[in-house]
Amino acid sequence: MSSLNILASLQTNGMIPEEYKQMPREALEKRVVEIKQQLGKRLFIPGHHYQKDEVIQFADATGDSLKLAQISAENTDAEFIVFCGVHFMAETADILTNNKQKVFLPDMRAGCSMADMADIQQTERAWEVLQGHFGDTILPLTYVNSTAAIKAFVGANGGATVTSSNAETMVKWAFDVKERILFLPDQHLGRNTAADLGLGLDEMAIWNPITNTLEYDGDYSAIKVILWKGHCSVHENFTVQNVVETRNQYPNMKIIVHPECRREVVELADTAGSTSYIINEIEKAEPGSAWAIGTEMNLVNRIINDHPDKKIISLNPHMCPCLTMNRIDLPHLVWSLDTLDNENNMVKVSPEITENAKLALERMLENS
């Protein structure tokens, strides 16, 4: 599969006009309401959990990336899907929706640093080297937080996507198929999942896509998991020191973190799980309970506001919101809505990528 033939198409008519940046918030909010009323069921706005409140207030559905893509696909009345998230999420929505639906990303700069740490050229080079080392013993798995091209690569090579909720199930499935797995693009989710399933750290190697080398001291025959050297720039910033300081300051506080955090942080936390898991755990917690949450700051602040009966803090008090998620703001949302007929900022995945990426997604849905 040539990398030249599997690039997704991103259509844009340029940068946002200055007039949108100068509009007062009230005028912007009024415009969104007007357009939603005009288009009715023809318009659907999914909003990821990490979005700003100024944007999330207009979301027709909130959730994680896969859930929102699935809801978009089910909502066949919607001609325009304006995805408030990042590029890989809009790609997944375009993969799953029908040909009559069009997917838009209000700001094309809204990427994901983790997804960008594994591009298709790097992956094809890695696969060739790894096949040389291990032969046909490896099954590729990719986190849904990856580009459409990576999903397509995994699908074409017999693998599947995973989410932070079903990663354990999918890793178990993969080991029923092949002796080893290549886990893209987040090393921390891969490491945490494999360790929770009983694999030792000495059975895990790291693939460095920059040097195009396998980082491992020992006999390659012992390797069961090959972790792509990628990470979430937000979750990697939670540290052991954050845990220690929280324990010292709040001895009775429970610590809950996302599995994209480093292994040593997950081991020290009281519990770890997906975004949905974190939200649900806080919701069902007793009033008066105390929590330190290790995940994105926009979501943490929203959870704090939604649960005034509980003591909730960020595990890292100096954490900033995800910078790329924060690129979607009210001016960009209004600009996108105003220019839907011009197909401004439309995300279109090629048929070849769509076909193979669907294979990866479908294998996950069939086996989890």
Number of strands: 17
In the CATH hierarchy, the architecture of the largest domain is: 3-Layer(aba) Sandwich
Q: Low-confidence segments, ≥5 residues, pLDDT <50?
A: 1-13
CATH class of the largest domain: Alpha Beta
Question: Can you tell me the overall shape?
Answer: globular
Portion of residues within helices: 40-55%
Tally the helices: what do you get? 15
SS-derived structural category? alpha/beta
Number of separate domains: 3
Biggest sheet overview: 6 strands, mixed
And the CATH topology of the largest domain?
Answer: Rossmann fold
CATH homologous superfamily label of the largest domain: NadA-like
End-to-end separation in angstroms reads 27 Å
What is the strand content?
Answer: 15-25%
Kindly report the average pLDDT value. Answer: 94
- Compute the CA-based radius of gyration: 21 Å
Sheet with the most strands: spatial strand order: 8-7-9-12-10-11
Structure overview:
The longest helix has 17 residues, at about 350-365. Helices cover about 40% and strands about 15% of the residues. α5 (about 85-95) links the parallel β5 (about 80) and β6. The protein contains 15 helices and 17 strands. It has three domains: about 5-110 and about 325-350, NadA-like (Rossmann fold, 3-Layer(aba) Sandwich); about 115-235, NadA-like (Rossmann fold, 3-Layer(aba) Sandwich); about 240-315, 3-Layer(aba) Sandwich (Rossmann fold), CATH 3.40.50. The strands form four sheets. A six-stranded mixed beta sheet has the order 8-7-9-12-10-11, sandwiched between helices. It has a five-stranded mixed beta sheet with strand order 1-17-6-5-2. It has a four-stranded parallel beta sheet with strand order 14-13-15-16. It has helices spanning about 20, 25-40, 55, 65-75, 85-95, 120-135, 150-155, 165-175, 185-195, 240-250, 265-270, 275-285, 295-305, 330-340, 350-365, and strands at about 10, 45, 45-50, 60-65, 80, 100-105, 140-145, 160, 180-185, 205-210, 215, 225-230, 255, 270, 290-295, 310-315, 345-350.
